[in-house]
Amino acid sequence: MADKRHMCLRGLIILCALLSGISGVDDNQVFCSSGEDVRLSCNNALSGCTSTTWNYSNHSETVELIAEGIKTDTERHERLSLGSDCSLNIKKVTKEDCGLYTCRQYVNKQQQGTDAHVYLHVLHVSSSSSQSEIRSGGSVTLSCQLYYNYDLFTCDSSVGSEGLELIWVNQAGVNLQTDSRFQISFSSEQCLSSLTTTLLNEDHNREWRCQVKHRNQLKTSATYTVKYQTPTETKTPSPVTISKSPAAPTQPASVDSTLIPVSSSNSEKKSSQTTAAASTKQEKQTTHTPETTSDTQQDKWIFTTNTEMTSAHTLIRVIVIIVEIAVFAAPTVILLQIICVRRAGRKNSLHEKEIEMSTVLQ
How many angstroms separate the CA atoms of 119 and 137, rounded? Predict the structure, then answer.
């Protein structure tokens, strides 16, 4: 009972501070969505900002961010900067950035004036489903939560006394609360609004927006865009192709050194037909070899192919040698034929002279 009275008393004090201020303190509330850049004003700043100090508080923890115009916080160092008017700029706000920010002035280590307070509330939208689960016909639940300083505010009091609202709207700005297709629930304990629906085909690339209204004024909004995963094309198994070209197979150096081109010969045609047949046979075997062929079968196939190619080149070599022998032996054969013809001519002439002599004698 005492705890409830304490919470009610604290809520009244905070409410009075927000409406009228206490001891001249200027309180301010800033709403933004996660991922945005935000600017927090310092209403008690002195010229030059060298006397300005910014502190951050949340859950009874206080961290010094800026001291006499110089950044001191290492965790958010890259995202913090000080404006020319001593305002605090925060880049890419996260839900952990929510809380109380205090701007304080020091001159000669003596505080000047009163503190300027800024309460930062961060709106964050997320999905309960992973990207692979978001598809037409499936159910999706979107969560819109407002993060704030739990030690200073309660969502119940803010909703009841200050008119705080979390509203789901479509791309046209129409409230989805009245659409029976969507089931919307609100938890004041967590300041969380949930939207559940079954996705349709036309929901691809559609935006749903969660808005925060404070005293009937739109403060900020966060958008969720539905993205269906593009189905990946299934790849059919492709035949295994050997990297070695059939026109230039791997073979011993001795076989390559004996390849001599021969023109205008039947033997060349036969050898080329044999080579073409071997190449065609190799291509057929390569094309019909499935991707799941084991390394042992591939090695055996390569060995057989190399053996056939070696045999073909050996046959070419033998034919070339025969042709060379025929070319070198041709002059000798022709010379022998000439000698034989001349000898035959001499014998015929002698025989005719003998006949003439016998005739004269008679």
Answer: 41
Q: Which residue has the tokens 């309960």?
A: 128
| End-to-end CA gap in the chain | 177
Whether 166 contacts 147, CB under 8 Å: no
- The residue whose two tokens read 């609202």 is 165
Distance, CA of 20 to CA of 94 (rounded, Å) = 30
Q: How confident is the model at residue 130 (pLDDT cuts 50, 70, 90)?
A: confident
- Separation between Cα atoms, residue 328 and residue 150, nearest integer Å: 109
Q: Sign of the C-alpha dihedral, residues 357, 358, 361, 362?
A: negative
Q: What is the pLDDT of residues 239-266, one digit of tens each?
A: 444 344 444 444 444 334 333 343 333 4
Token couple for 140: 């999706």
Report the alpha-carbon distance of residue 18 to residue 163 in Å, rounded.
13
pLDDT of residue 157: 82
Tokens of residue 295, six digits: 């390394």
Q: Write out pLDDT tens, residues 184-213.
A: 999 988 899 999 999 999 999 999 999 999
Give the distance from CA 268 to its chain's centroid. Answer: 56
CB 104 within 8 A of CB 53: yes
The answer to whether residue 154 scores a pLDDT higher than 70 is: yes
pTM (2 d.p.): 0.57
pLDDT digits (tens, 9 = 90+) for 61-84: 899 999 989 999 888 889 999 999
Identify whether the C-beta of residue 25 lies closer than 8 Å to the C-beta of residue 113.
Answer: no
Residue 65 and residue 55 in contact, taking contact as beta carbons nearer than 8 Å: yes
| Other beta carbons less than 10 A from residue 169's beta carbon | 17
Helix boundaries (H) for 44-203: 155-162
Of 80, 99, 94, whose CA–CA distance to 39 is shortest? Answer: 80
Between CA 101 and CA 283 the distance in angstroms is: 76
Residues 171, 153: Cα–Cα separation, whole Å: 31
Provide the residue count of the chain.
362
Residue 83, beta-bridge partner list = none
